Amino acid sequence: MLHLSAAVDQPSAYDAASYLTLARLAERGGLDFVTLGDSFDRPGPDALAVLARLAPATSRIGLVPTVTTTHTEPFHVQAAVATLDWVSRGRAGWRIDVSATEGEARLFGRRPAMPADALWQEAGEVADVAAKLWDSWEDDAEIRDVPTGRFIDRDKLHHVDFRGTSFSVKGPSIVPRPPQGHPVRVVDATDAPARRTAARYADVALVRAASAQQAAAIRQQLRSLAADSGRHPDQLRVLAGLLVDLGDGEHAAEPGHGGGGPRQTPQGPLYRGGPVDLAELIATWHGEGVVDGFHLTPVEPLRDLERLVNGTVALLQHRGLFRTFYPGSSLREHLGLARPANQYATNGSAS
């Protein structure tokens, strides 16, 4: 199964309508999910809040905001992501990121900036405790028994009693278990410090690679690390991250590529060309098992996403390589991932 997703980032855009236009366009193309970036080191709206606004105005597209694990409270982060899963009816994800600069650290004044290895270790611990907190309510913990006045079965709420290197959490969560069990966790695994965290905890790993060989090597490393962590490698989807500029018309394809790309740039690998050659690049890399799909970032958001959906995606659909409709309603279903069993349940009701 080929997986496609897109970024809907728009510098200096604060109105929800412009983000909704892009999300609905991606949904019309059947894309698995859209992402919206966020960071403490630049101005902009809160990504999670924006996508929560988009949730009731969309019906199938997955919604994946970036939320940093640095300088934030793990308990609050997991509750916010669980809430997004509830308001979207099971379409939430969470792009896990870290905040590495001294400037970001000074915004909070709690501690100095830390090395990348330490930050990603902490991010892994946050991902771990988030899953435990999501499971701290069994699926049938809410009983809503009006005659007795009992809202929950306390025997089906669990303390997680988690202690990490920089925080501890007792639990349970204040939000019932999300519709997906665990909202989808996404990690950019391009840089080495993030890979072990991605392999152990992510459902989707993003890889910015300028060649098929580089992407294939990172994918194989991630799958090996996942197996070393006790996971089945097929539980991890690896998507190639690619900037796309579809505004210059068609260009002759180079072997294994399209439009003379992708080409390495300071912002990451860039494809510049037309929708046809981009479809060929996607089909070739996926057909050769290089990646499980692509995460595409339009250079000009509306223009390039329109050409992506109406051109590239339509061609892939015509060739039978990409879905023409959503077979399910949740992001996990889009990605072909099972709903995780509840690690605290003893009666099998949370599988």
Please provide a written account of the structure.
The protein has 351 residues and is an alpha/beta fold. Helices cover 35% and strands 17% of the residues. Helix 1 crosses helix 2 (47-54) and helix 8 (275-287) packs across helix 9. The longest helix is centred in the middle third of the chain and has 19 residues, at 116-134. The protein is globular and about 65 Å long.
Widest β-sheet, arrangement of strands: 1-2-3-4-9-10-11-13
Quaternary status of these chains?
single chain
DSSP, total strands: 13
Number of helices: 10
Q: Using only CA atoms, what is the Rg?
A: 20 Å
Main sheet: strands, sense, barrel: 8 strands, parallel, barrel
Q: Provide mean pLDDT, rounded.
A: 93
In whole angstroms, the N-to-C terminal distance is: 24 Å
Order of helices and strands: EHEHEHEHHEEEEEHEHEEHEHH
Low-pLDDT stretches are none
